Amino acid sequence: MLPHLRGDAATQPQLCVLIVDDDKLIRLALGDLLSPFMVTFAQSAAGALGRLQAGGSFDAIVCDIYMPGMNGMQFYEEVARISNQLANRIIFISGGASSPEVADFLGHTPNTFLFKPVNREALKSAVLAAAGGSQVAASLVEGGY
Asked: By residue range, what is the domain housing residue 59?
């Protein structure tokens, strides 16, 4: 699946990324790190799931593992019910993956996992990889993004 093109011939194509984290400051920091990608924020997994069910279309999803209510692992399972391809484009982040449940989940899930604090290069590389290595992703890499 190709990432979604945003812009026209005069502008750089954009990847569209959904950031899911209950911490507003983390969401904003991740958004800054992902500039110039188009970023949409969700403060909960349930809110993000609602966006997806309403037809929201994203090239990659960056999701915190530990959140109140629906956690990142539960979010992954719900997204997989909608689309396995979309579930495979989730990048998990956390300040720590200390519980046996999380360690087991990450061990059986092919998705990328990054520890907070996340550095710009690792995050952008993970987003580009999740987006599928399309022509848009390749042009962004060549352009130094």
From this structure: 16-142
